[in-house]
Amino acid sequence: MHMNKKEVSNAEIMEALGQFAQSVDKRFDSVENRLFKMDGRLDNLETDMVDVKAKVNKIYDVFDDHMRRIENILQENQVQKYQQDRLERWIFQLTDKMDIKLKYE
């Protein structure tokens, strides 16, 4: 049904505007609730990221400790190799001086 401007009363216009305002309020409330939930999720995500960073730092600390131990072991192995080579040279020098033949088995 098509109405012209004269057929619409002020009360009808006000009622239509009131319904429109209520519709806008409902939509605004819905959007506001969604934003509030997203804000809460972001807060949780920030908290989770702090925990993740702390755990990653702990892993790096453990990794650094292991690397330090490995470096120490490698240095000790080099020193032991040097000492072993020196002792072997001395043994061969002694056996040469004493004219002793060593058997390798």
Give a written overview of the molecule.
It is a single chain. This protein is mainly alpha-helical and 105 residues long. It has one domain (12-97). It is built from one helix and no strands. The protein has one helix spanning 10-97. It is rod-shaped. The mean pLDDT is 86.
Topology diagram in text:
Blueprint: H1 10-97
% residues in beta strands: under 5%
Shape: rod-shaped
Helix count from the secondary structure assignment? 1
The total tally of domains equals 1
Number of extended strands: 0
Gyration radius, rounded: 43 Å
| Poorly predicted runs of 5 or more residues | none
Descriptive key words:
105 residues; mainly alpha; 1 helix
Quick rundown:
The protein is an all-alpha fold. It is built from one helix and no strands.
